[in-house]
Structures are given as structure tokens and as C-alpha cells.
Write a structure and sequence with these properties.
single chain, alpha/beta, TIM Barrel, 5-stranded parallel sheet, 3-stranded antiparallel sheet
Length: about 325
């Protein structure tokens, strides 16, 4: 995971770097002019990144990105969505999101939601180009000018936070119930890191949903004396009750969300307080439209968002994802 894009070169980014300009094709389009979608194409790269391109009769195109896993299935599903419902133009983004979602017999899940995520991003891209503004301006403008990130510690860039995985001296945890020797190894490694970087650096701990609950239960308590910043995906989110039970055993914030889809998936997490930091992914969770709604739900529970972004190329380096981060509550 890379909440708020850990691979960005600086600890803080400025919105001044993202002043959108209207493309030549969009310059002649008025707010009341009708434009139509003419083509939807999907592209699978050799590294299995999946992109979607939507073209219009006005010459304005939009790009989005889908789930990397199950790439061919996502690309095929996206291509079948080429005839966006009705005669509605591409700027009715919310209409298209609902039509795609409600028109499916099986709703939610990684593939269906990834398809709608990519299409949603592309439609927002078109809309922003038509009006000559970045997406966050269409949603009310930024709520902040800077966002903190974690990554490689550097005085030059100002990064003063990082994230590490759960690992012993020789391996990562894989047994259902790891013994005390392995737990001690994990703790000693984390203790040594804490002593090296000092108290002025925040350190998140990535469990990656790969640690079994009995082991996770022991580790989250054993690491507490060395002040982790947060625990990420202490267990898989398939059984939210188990995650909530573990969350009640520690005062360290729990983060999760990269494998959770749509507002309905996050509803149970919030209601059961299984996590207090949500990490929806703009390429998995339902696109920009849905991420904005998830953020609103989280705010009602005083839960911050650290949007996940490990694989996304478009969202990591370019709009809409960075602007979306600035606009969330």
C-alpha cells in the first residue's frame, strides 16, 4: 500500500503544480453543449497494468486505470461497457456510475468495481477537460494545500515517516500461531529501527493481511512499547468481526481498505470500528465518485483517509488522484 502515494518525491506536494488547462478540442465546448461517447477502449500492458480510454465526438478523450490483478478480465469487462447507458453525455459521471452498478446482476467485488473505477476516472477526466478545471475544483475545491506522505527518509525532501513489514530475522510470519522466538525477532528488529531513527520519525507496520489472527494478536501488543504509527491490514477483511476483535486489543490505530470495495464494503468496517484509518484505492473501490462518498462516511466516524495507491500509474503521478487527496475532508 502507499497511502497518499508514498513514492512521491517530496513529503508535501503543492496544488500549484496541477493547474489544469482546457485542451484545444474542449475550448469550443459550452456547458450546455451535448457531446457523446464514441468509443471505449481498454489496454493491457505487459506488466498487466490496465488502462481505459474514452473518446467523444468533440475530440476530448479521458483516461482511467483499473485493477492490475485479473487484468484480462477487467479489460474484457470494460470493453463490454463500451456502450455507456442511454444517450447521456460523458459529463453525467454520477449517472453512469449508478447505471453501471445497478445494471449488473452481480454487484461489487474486485473485477466489477475495478471496471467502474476506470470508467469513472476517464469520465471525470473528460469533464475536467471540458470545463478547463481540475477534478477537485468540480467537487468544491481543495480542503488543504499540503498532504503528508511517507517514504524514504530524507532531510532534503522532508519525508519523516516510513512503513515497514512484519519480519523476523530470517523470514516473514507464515505459521498459524508463531512461537515466542519469532515474535521476539520481530520486536527486536522494530526496536532497533526505532532506536536508529528516533522518536521524531513515524513508523507504520504493514501486516499485509498475511498474518494469521493468533500471531497478529500477540504482535500488536508486543510492538506497542516502541510506538508504531499504525498497523495496516492486521488480518484479511473477509471477517470484519475478527479484525474488530483485534482492534479492541490495542491502542495503536488500525488501517485497512485496499481490498475493500464500494461504500457498502466500508460501512461494516466503520460500524464495527474494525479500523480507524481507511485506505480505499481509486482503481479498486469505485473510482473518484465512490472515493468521495467513502470519505464522507469516514468523516462521520472521525476516521481519516489514507488512500491506497500501490499499482496505479495514472493516479500515482497525475490527476485525478493527487487532486482528490487534496479535496477529501
Amino acid at each position: 500500500m502507499a497511502p497518499v502515494a508514498a513514492l512521491w518525491p517530496a513529503a508535501l506536494f503543492s496544488l500549484e503544480a496541477f493547474n489544469a488547462k482546457r485542451c484545444d478540442a474542449a475550448a469550443a465546448i459550452g456547458p450546455n453543449d451535448n457531446i457523446k461517447v464514441t468509443k471505449l477502449e481498454t489496454f493491457v500492458l505487459k506488466n498487466t497494468w490496465v488502462f481505459v480510454k474514452i473518446s467523444t465526438d468533440a475530440g476530448v478523450t479521458g483516461w482511467g486505470e483499473m485493477l492490475k490483478d485479473d487484468a484480462k478480465a477487467c479489460a474484457a469487462g470494460g470493453a463490454r461497457s463500451g456502450r455507456l447507458p442511454g444517450r447521456q453525455g460523458p459529463r453525467r459521471v454520477g449517472f453512469h456510475w449508478q447505471a453501471i452498478h445497478r445494471g449488473a446482476f452481480y454487484r461489487g467485488g474486485p473485477i466489477k468495481t475495478a471496471i467502474s473505477s476506470g470508467i469513472d476516472q476517464a469520465l471525470w477526466d473528460i469533464t475536467g477537460k471540458c470545463y478547463g478545471v481540475p477534478v477537485h475544483q468540480l467537487m468544491g475545491g481543495p480542503t488543504r494545500d499540503r498532504v503528508r506522505v511517507y517514504g524514504q527518509l530524507s532531510e532534503k525532501t522532508g519525508v519523516n515517516a516510513l512503513k515497514v513489514g512484519v519480519r523476523g530475522t530470517r523470514r516473514s510470519p507464515f505459521k498459524y500461531n508463531e512461537g515466542q522466538m519469532f515474535v521476539d525477532e520481530v520486536v527486536e528488529r522494530f526496536k532497533a529501527l526505532r532506536e536508529k531513527v528516533g522518536k521524531g520519525v513515524d513508523i507504520g507496520v504493514e501486516f499485509h493481511g498475511a498474518v494469521q489472527p493468533p500471531t497478529a494478536s500477540v504482535l500488536i501488543k508486543a510492538l506497542e512499547p516502541y510506538h508504531p504509527w499504525f498497523y495496516e491490514e492486521i488480518v484479511q477483511a473477509l471477517n470484519v468481526d475478527v479484525m474488530a476483535e483485534l482492534a479492541r486489543k490495542t491502542h495503536i490505530p488500525i488501517a485497512t481498505g485496499e481490498r475493500i470495495f464500494t461504500k457498502w464494503g466500508f460501512k461494516e468496517i466503520l460500524e464495527k470500528r474494525a479500523a480507524v484509518i481507511l485506505q480505499p484505492d481509486v482503481c479498486y473501490a469505485g473510482g473518484i465518485t465512490e472515493l468521495k462518498m467513502i470519505a464522507g462516511m469516514a468523516e462521520a466516524y472521525y476516521s481519516p483517509l489514507a488512500p491506497h495507491n500501490r499499482k496505479a500509474l495514472l493516479a500515482r503521478g497525475q490527476p485525478p488522484d493527487r487532486r482528490l487527496h487534496s479535496q477529501l475532508p
